[in-house]
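INTERNAL TRANSFER SHEET
From: sequence group
To: structure group
Subject: Class I SAM-dependent methyltransferase

Please process the attached sequence and return the structure record in the designated field. Keep the field labels unchanged so the import script can parse them.
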Amino acid sequence: MTGQTVAAADPYWNRYYNAEFEFGMGTEDVLAALSELPPVRRWCDLGAGSESLLWSIPLTADHLIAVDVDLDRLAILSRYAAQGQPRPAYTTVLRMCHRTAEDFTRRCRSLAGTLVADCLDGPPLALAPGSTDLVTQFGLLGLAETPEHFLDAWRRAHVPLAPGGWCAGANWVPEPSRQTGRVTLTQGLYRRAFADAGIHPHLLHRVASVDPQFPSLWLYTGRKQ
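Return from structure group:
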């Protein structure tokens, strides 16, 4: 995996998802977009890290497969799912999404498995084409290095998506000093990616963030034709 996230597994978890919820960083916009998606049976979260259960709160999905190249992040996710108890940031999100602690426990039980795979540069995912009703990624594709890299990773990421299935995601845009080695994300690049994968965009816009390291993000949803 060529790109780098903000920090290693434990510091990243504690900074962004284990402490109090931080408003204004774009997370509220992502949650609102996810809440508009219909219930699905099979959900695959690519580049899942340790955060899939946060995104699960506004969703209704029976089975979640979390995919990531980082074993430590997947281990954090699995341990948290086994505990089944929301921590501070998650408790705030539950209130925002009008969900209860019991709802969160059910979300934890939906984690059907984890898959270790490099979603940016590895071989095709070990998921059958058309086997998934929802494909998400939060932060993953923004780690691509060039437009061609982004488009290739996008195509491979959505091979498991069934006709009529949904995709959703967000990619945070770093401030200029952090941009080196990352693709420049544009509306045109996203629209080309949607077209290449046969996906109709339902939502695509750029959202401001108060995070000085990542002052904006691209947010999208779409449905495979």
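Handover comment: The radius of gyration is 16 Å. The chain has one domain: 9-224.
Transfer complete.
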